[in-house]
Amino acid sequence: MADIAELPGETAYQRVERSEEFQALRSRFRRFVFPMTALFLVWYFAYVLLASYAHDFMSTRIGDSSITVGLLFGLGQFVTTFVITMLYARWANNSLDPEADALRERVEGGDL
Questions:
Q1: Residue of 82, 60, 55 whose CA lies nearest to 72
Q2: Of the four listed, 14, 38, 71, 81, which is most buried by Cβ atoms within 10 Å?
Q3: Rounded to whole angstroms, how far apart are CA atoms 13 and 58?
Q4: What percent of the chain has pLDDT over 70?
């Protein structure tokens, strides 16, 4: 890990932002978050569009119960939110946070 030369008038934050370690962390974060966000938004908007334009389909009852396809899809929104949150927390704790902590220690120690 090479130290980054300080440019005139540059803050510590700007120097860290230019570092390879920070760029790698940001890239790894984006590779996880952007696809997850896109998938969730597609799922969310599909639900909204189906609720708006496919009333017959969404009001279809499951078996002899009062549970409808729309209700299951709506509950699925909550389930996917919790699953994505758990996946992100596990991924960040195991993969992203240790590297971020190491970078923070370098910055606070004046090594960057």
A1: 60
A2: 71
A3: 50
A4: 94
